[in-house]
Design a protein that fits this description.
Length: about 130
């Protein structure tokens, strides 16, 4: 089950203990990086959500994790950009693994789009400079 931790639900002593444990891990450890991000986030008042790949999320929870409205998430689901399954008569559930995959694809698309915009701006600048 996906769980969101906040600085108000995790005592500072436990955040310190998490930081200490992270420091005991080998340099470059992926687990150490994740635990460091958790402890830093909690220390700075940022909520941290921990979920397994097989956790099933409601659309409301998935939208909150993505930082978008539930209405927008339904548009994403209806467009087929994010996999889901139906439970009961009409309720939808999204696997955390599918949400992570969608987020990674979205980030790659945004990065490619940003590179395209930067390249176009560079070409426009070169054109304007050659006209001077």
């Amino acid at each position: 089950m996906a769980t969101t931790l906040t600085s108000s639900t995790v005592p500072a002593t436990q955040i310190d203990a998490l930081s200490d444990f992270r420091a005991s891990l080998p340099e470059g450890s992926e687990l150490g990086r994740v635990l460091g991000a958790m402890s830093d986030g909690l220390r700075h008042g940022v909520g941290v959500t921990v979920a397994r790949d097989d956790d099933q999320l409601t659309p409301a929870r998935a939208a909150a994790i993505l930082g978008i409205s539930r209405t927008h998430l339904y548009k994403v689901l209806d467009a087929g950009a994010l996999r889901f399954h139906v439970v009961g008569e009409r309720d939808r559930r999204i696997l955390m693994a599918d949400l992570r995959d969608y987020l990674e694809r979205s980030m790659r698309f945004r990065a490619a789009d940003a590179q395209s915009i930067a390249k176009r701006q560079q070409l426009e600048d070169e054109l304007l400079n050659s006209m001077e």
